[in-house]
Queue: 2 jobs
Job 1
Amino acid sequence: MSLPVGLPAVADSDLVGQVARILTQAIVQGRLPPGSKVVEAGIARELGVSRAPVREAARLLEKQGLLVAKPRRGFFVRKLEIRNIDEIYDLRLCIERHASVLAARNLTTESRDALRRQIDVLHKTADLDDPARQVEEDYRFHRLIFEIADNRRLLRLFDDLAAELRMVIGLIGRLYDDPHEIARTHEPLLAAIEAGHPERITAHVDYHIGHAWREVGKLARELALPAGDAAEAPGGILIPTNGVTV
Amino acid sequence: MSLPVGLPAVADSDLVGQVARILTQAIVQGRLPPGSKVVEAGIARELGVSRAPVREAARLLEKQGLLVAKPRRGFFVRKLEIRNIDEIYDLRLCIERHASVLAARNLTTESRDALRRQIDVLHKTADLDDPARQVEEDYRFHRLIFEIADNRRLLRLFDDLAAELRMVIGLIGRLYDDPHEIARTHEPLLAAIEAGHPERITAHVDYHIGHAWREVGKLARELALPAGDAAEAPGGILIPTNGVTV
DNA sequence: CAAGACTAAACTGTCGACAATCGACGATTA
DNA sequence: TAATCGTCGATTGTCGACAGTTTAGTCTTG
């Protein structure tokens, strides 16, 4: 009768997922720089697979916003423009406020401890002089908040945004000169969440994210990234206005 | 030399996009009911294309949340669970507050008039006794707000959410008994946006969306949709914690 | 020397094919 | 009788191929 003995749960072949992860990594780490072309056959050969899974993975990344598809020309790594950065941070600010308030509402002793532990990790990591790791652990903290908020769509959205943000940060370089600063600024945020006052929470999120936004924006402008007000890519699948046939 | 004669913009071959739109329509209109299996070969045959574009389109819809992919089993229309509805409305409330405030900030006489005209359209549509059309025009109004907010990511997100919402509404049936009610409730919202007070705006959005949320939730519970707290689908592509090699 | 025409290579979009796997159904066994 | 096993059709995952288009490079021409 098959006792529910544990769970080896064999690894799915799932080439598409793997390719998507690998591509994401490559983009986020800057190995595929913004604007560069993603040649399907090249990726396929390099990974030892055929083009079909690569295309499907590329489509996913396109929907996620890391790639842009130009018909008959292929996929390109999305270019970083000031406008993109502003859009990303604007959206992030919007959802992180919300997630933080939700997290406060759902906060348990365990989840609170998890957040505290993560702040400790941030402090410890600060001594390592490993910017990539620092970014990673920072991401972990904020992701925790979204996990506690307990809305899977919100979490997915954050992950998608985070991938783009990593691209930005990777390109721009380290964010703070003092890595301990990064750790310290999380404490009042957590305090506000523990206190549970929505206004205080959003104020702290605004300060926290807004600071990063301004910093990144400043650096981006120094690097003279294009503004990018042009239409760029038509984007998502819009539901056309058709005479519904229900 | 090709004078830049604007705009026929021939329908790109772009099979993937077309298939995605068609599939979206079918799902939203309930022709592919929640939980049903999407057989690649079947769709392909029916549309007269091969499986490759169908798969790519399905992957897009998966990322969008309309489909769920079970490895080695195929794609299934996402089941409607109470939890999904709550997540969708929660996220929608979050972004629509934000978009409305942004829209107020960006409001011009033209965009204001566009919103007013759309309310007129809503009133006119109310006499037609065409629920599908009513939903369509309602969607238009809210989409306008996101367009005015002028953040492409926000807009795309709204479109994605809207597709899921249509599925919900299509399944649950008409939302209001009095279609004029739906039109009237937009007026104070627009008034608040014109006034430009963030607090008043969010309050009105909360009321407006919250009302729909409660209505839909009530109907969903009457239909005894499953709660769906189970893990369901792992979801987005997470960036694994790897030793970065920069 | 620069602008344009032409050619060849590279690449995308799409297709059909094949092996591996899943699910159902009936046979087998305790 | 109920549970397990084996078989078979249906379906997915993946691949290689081919036509049409884009791109890069070369050659021509004013």
Job 2
Amino acid sequence: MTARGAATRARIVEAAAGLIYDRGVGGTSLDDVMRASSTSKSQLYHYFADKDALIGAVIQAQTCRVLAFQATLLDHVETLAGLRGWRDAIVAATEAACGVGGCPLGTLGSELADRSENARALVAEGFQAWELRLASCLRRLREHGELDPGAEPNDLAASLIGALQGGLLLAQTTRTVRSLKLVLDMALEHVGSRAKAGVL
Amino acid sequence: MTARGAATRARIVEAAAGLIYDRGVGGTSLDDVMRASSTSKSQLYHYFADKDALIGAVIQAQTCRVLAFQATLLDHVETLAGLRGWRDAIVAATEAACGVGGCPLGTLGSELADRSENARALVAEGFQAWELRLASCLRRLREHGELDPGAEPNDLAASLIGALQGGLLLAQTTRTVRSLKLVLDMALEHVGSRAKAGVL
DNA sequence: CCACGACTGGACTTGACAGTCCATATGTCT
DNA sequence: AGACATATGGACTGTCAAGTCCAGTCGTGG
């Protein structure tokens, strides 16, 4: 693929990701994508076998987006108190959007998991990667003596992500950030309960 | 509406709810509903103004279904240990289905919240009702001296539901019950941390 | 410069879907 | 019985979406 081709492909994925985030997979037609990316049908079908292939690329793009955002929040976290900054940033972002949109990965998972095995697996990979990054951040905290040596970074990471997904789903449907705050605070408290004695 | 009419209407809603639970709103056509309920177009449009109106009825039906299921689990809970039965039943049901389907209310919320304000509000009402029932169960526990007088039943209920939603979403996309278990155990531990001194 | 593969434009086909329309049936009340 | 509201059958329309096809253009290596 030439540089021009790669740019076109990227433009298509970018546009599709935006439309799908706003309107869902079912609510986004290829004609919408063409308009938003200034491309033609032949271009879409030149770079993607069919709509499902495009969706697959969108899932991977959204995974990258989520991981990048999480990295900006987690990379400099060195203490349990720092983890609260993660919570606050997510709550602030959700509040700013009134919950609209939700998690780019979570909404895709909910819409596609039971409809396309391929899509489901891709979203699951995204969550897996996310959990790994979060776990390694927690492992760092444990190494720094913030967390008890018996704390399980992998399990804690899964709980944190689960709490976040539930909170975002409720924020999306209630247009309120109340449940998100409660569930994230619960998760933080849970991590805190695995703090090394004397740290808190 | 005559009794026969009411029966027809109920058959339509029932069939639509089943199809939508399996295939999503976008993946369910009115022709599908007709076939599954043995009705004709005129009947659909006799009882519902348009597809959105039918979806609204489906949301209310699924709300009833969820509340009824939750009632069977919660009505006889009188202790914190009893609450663990609630967790176990949900995990068992999810495991049996390999996570497929998810929460009838949660999946509808995720698909519709940003697409239809009316649908969003209906799903939000459903969650609200659910939270109320769960909170009154927790309040009973508090009255029975299981929970500390300072425990907040409403907040605890919201956390429990949020954790459940996140766990079900992850179960659906990973086809694993691991995150669901972790997040529900975390929520139970959180409730336990509000137990009356000496109960645990 | 020219040949060939990568790339692009856009018309066209096919099918599905929401919603309309009118004719007919059913049942109840008088 | 018969009038009238409720209920039902099913053909029809218009729209929109996915996917196909072919005629071109671009750009780079030989």
